[in-house]
Write a structure and sequence with these properties.
Blueprint lengths: L1 H18 L15 H19 L8 E6 L8 E6 L9 E4 L8 E3 L7 H13 L10
Antiparallel strand pairs: 1-2, 2-3, 3-4
Helix pairs in contact: 2-3
Length: about 140
């Protein structure tokens, strides 16, 4: 009789466990960062390294304004004139929400440097952090 009760209790537990086994949502990323922030961090680090820390002459007239941790959910960085940090941005590089798609826009994109910026950003977004060749 005791064995029968144990088997019945086991069957109930297994039945309840089966009821709870629905589709599972994937666990959040271990870093807690959105796809856009992870993508922008990768691009911003490479941009700083390749354009500014390396003292690339093509970017001497600009400085980088990092806004990766802004409260609007749009991690981005800006290029502004070197001596005018509060000036209107000449380049905006950003990603939004849970997308790793990077958007690039601003007046610099219509100048000769625009094609260089596009190729650099695309390379960095894909995971290649190399600096490539100067324009």
């Amino acid at each position: 009789m005791k064995t029968l009760r144990i088997l019945a209790a086991t069957a109930v537990v297994i039945g309840l466990a089966a009821c709870n086994s629905g589709p599972k949502t994937p666990p959040p990323s271990s870093s807690g960062k959105s796809a856009s922030l992870r993508s922008m961090e990768q691009v911003a680090i490479a941009a700083h390294k390749c354009w500014f820390a390396s003292k690339d002459p093509a970017f001497k007239k600009y400085q980088m304004a990092n806004e990766l941790n802004n409260f609007g959910g749009t991690p981005r960085f800006l290029l502004v004139p070197a001596k005018q940090y509060g000036a209107r941005p000449l380049l905006v590089v950003q990603a939004q929400g849970n997308s790793s798609q990077v958007q690039v826009f601003g007046p610099l994109m219509s100048e000769a440097l625009g094609s260089r910026i596009t190729s650099d950003i695309n390379r960095w977004r894909s995971g290649d952090a190399s600096c490539g060749s100067a324009a």
